[in-house]
Amino acid sequence: MKIGMIGSGTVGRGLGAWFAKTGFPVLFTSRNPTHATEAAQTAGYGAKSVTTTALVQESDILLLTLPFGEIGAALEPAREHLPGKTVVDATNPITPDHRALAIGHTLSGAEEIARQFPAADIVKAFNAVFAEVYAAQKAQIDGRSVTIFFAGDHPRAKTSVREIITKLGFDAVDAGPLANSRYLEPLSLLNIHLGRAQGFGTQIGFSLLRTPRVFPSKRSRAASPQEMATNDFRNTPEANACAPPCPRSNGSQEESALHRPRTDPSSGAQTH
Ligand SMILES: NC(=O)c1ccc[n+]([C@@H]2O[C@H](COP(=O)([O-])OP(=O)(O)OC[C@H]3O[C@@H](n4cnc5c(N)ncnc54)[C@H](OP(=O)(O)O)[C@@H]3O)[C@@H](O)[C@H]2O)c1
């Protein structure tokens, strides 16, 4: 699986060198070709620098590691080669002071890229981990794997992205459809704030702690496609699950811990 880094700055160099060391063929491109050449030389392991169009043509997976506002300019000349390509969006549409998102809540940068380049299979990933972690090539911090969340609408592309995340040693967590980039992009701001303002430094990362579980099961499953499409998870078994043992009403439906009727001790009547 050949990986092409579009952007040879701090994120592109760090991740690209790590992929190369892990055994993936890697290509670099940049606005200034000298920077891509330097990135390839530093990475070693046969990494090369090429033009953006050649990189898009030759790579199986493209990583967007350039400023969000430059994506259109970078991809437009290679548009005809994008159909069916897995494009990993590691960017964040943040304001110049790194304090806010220029796009958010009802849209995300990743969805905007998908709108501009509908033939590509966009997957959001790698956006909420500091470049310094990639440069250090350490997927674990204090003995625990850092989680990289990924989101997208194309199962085949997501499988490839899960593979490259896992190969680096990160904990790959499927965060659902591309629209959930609306949750993942703000995570980058929290990361920046914790690292740079709260003094935790840049060797930090989020980790999703969870109980191992097997999907699908009666009580525990991912949301259905319809629930995904409507973003309405109020009635999934997960949403209504309570810690066992769960009380039952009518012998069938489990009641939510939040909506379980309580008995008024003075009257014996049920309250809500
Ligand atoms: N820094 C982090 O810790 C971090 C972590 C996660 C995600 N991100 C996101 O990752 C992206 C890159 O961040 P960075 O810190 O690596 O930035 P950076 O160090 O400034 O590097 C940006 C790279 O993009 C290249 N570039 C700019 N315009 C281009 C174009 N039109 N075509 C091709 N290449 C172009 C630049 O090329 P030249 O050098 O030749 O000008 C440079 O190599 C940003 O969207 C950022 O939000 C950053």
Question: What features would you describe in this structure?
Answer:
By secondary structure, the protein is α/β, with parallel strands linked by helices. It has 2 domains: 3-197, 3-Layer(aba) Sandwich (Rossmann fold), CATH 3.40.50.720; 225-271, no CATH class. Helix content is 33%, strand content 16%. It has 10 helices and 14 strands. The protein has helices spanning 10-22, 33-43, 52-58, 71-75, 109-116, 131-136, 155-167, 181-197, 225-230, 237-240; strands at residues 3-6, 26-29, 48-49, 61-64, 86-89, 121-124, 140-141, 144-145, 147-152, 171-174, 248-249, 253-254, 262-263, 270-271. The strands form 4 sheets. It has an 8-stranded mixed beta sheet, sandwiched between helices. It has a two-stranded antiparallel ribbon with strand order 7-8. A two-stranded antiparallel sheet has the order 11-12. The termini are far apart. The relative contact order is 0.11. Bound molecules: NADP nicotinamide-adenine-dinucleotide phosphate (NAP).
